[in-house]
Amino acid sequence: MFIDTHAHLTFPEFNDDLPQVIQRAKEAKLEAIVNIALDEEAIKQSLKISEQYPSYVFMAAGCHPHEAKDWTIEYETLLRQLAQDKKIVALGEMGLDYHYNLSPKEQQQEVFRQSLRLAQELDLPAIIHSREASRDTMLIIHEENKGNLKGVLHCFGSEMVLAKEALDLGLMISFTGTVTFKKAQPVRDVVREIPLESLMIETDCPFLAPQAFRGQRNEPAYVVEVAKQIAEVKDLTLEEVAETTTQNAKDFFNI
Ligand SMILES: [Zn+2]
Ligand SMILES: [Zn+2]
To answer: Which residues bind a divalent metal cation 2 (predicted)?
Structure first.
C-alpha cells in the first residue's frame, strides 16, 4: 500500500474525471491521499471531496508562499476552525519560494513564521515548501521551532547538507516524481543517504509527472513510480519502501 502525501485535487486539471482518478489510485494500491488546499475556494471543494471519499482523501490547508501577500486574519481564523473541527491533518503548504517571488520576500517570511507558530499551537504537522530559499527556510525553522515542531520538507530537490540539517531537526523529507527524472542524479544521491524512516512519497499532482509519464498530467496513482525509484536507489524491495513510507505517513499525519 502507498500514500500520496501531497496532491492538489482541486486544480482544474481534475475537473472532468476525479472519480476515475480516485479509482485508478485505489487500483494502484493507494491507501490514502492527502489533498492540499490553499485558499478558501479550494478548502470548500476539498471538504466536499473528503466527504465523498471518507478516510481516503484527507485534507491539509495553508497559505502557499505565492499567496503570502493575500494572507488575512480571516483566513487564519478559518484554518483554526478547520483544525478545531478536525477537518485538516496538517497545515500547509507553507514556506518560501524565491524562484517566482510572486509575493514579496518579507511577506513570504512573515507568513511562513506565522504558519509555523500556528502549526505548533494547533499541534498539527507542517508541510514546508522551499524553492531556491534553503538558507532562509532553515533559519526560520530554527528560530520558530519551540521544540514541538513536526514538519516535512516537501518536493525535496536540494543537496545533502540541507537534508542533514533537516534530519537533525527531526523533520521528514518527501520526494516527488522529480527523483525519476534523468538529470536528477544529485537528488537520488540524497535518497540513498536518507534513512527510509525519515522519508515520505508524494506526487504534487497535477504537476511533476514522473519520467514514465513525462509531459502528461500527474495523478496520485503515479506515486508508485516514486516508490519504485527509491527502492532501486536504496536497493530495497518495492514492498519494503511501500510499507515503511506508508507507516511514516500515517504516523506523521496521525491518520
Ligand atoms: Zn510545493
Ligand atoms: Zn504542492
So the answer is: 129, 154
pTM exceeding the 0.90 threshold for the entire prediction: yes
CB 153 within 8 A of CB 166: yes
Q: Distance between CA 70 and CA 1 in Å, rounded?
A: 38
Asked if CATH classification 3.20.20.140 holds for the domain at 2-253, the reply, yes or no, is yes
The confidence band for 160, taking pLDDT boundaries of 50, 70 and 90, is confident
Q: Is 99 annotated as a binding residue?
A: no
Q: 215 C-alpha vs ligand 2 centroid, how far in Å?
A: 18
93 CA to centre of ligand 1 in angstroms: 6
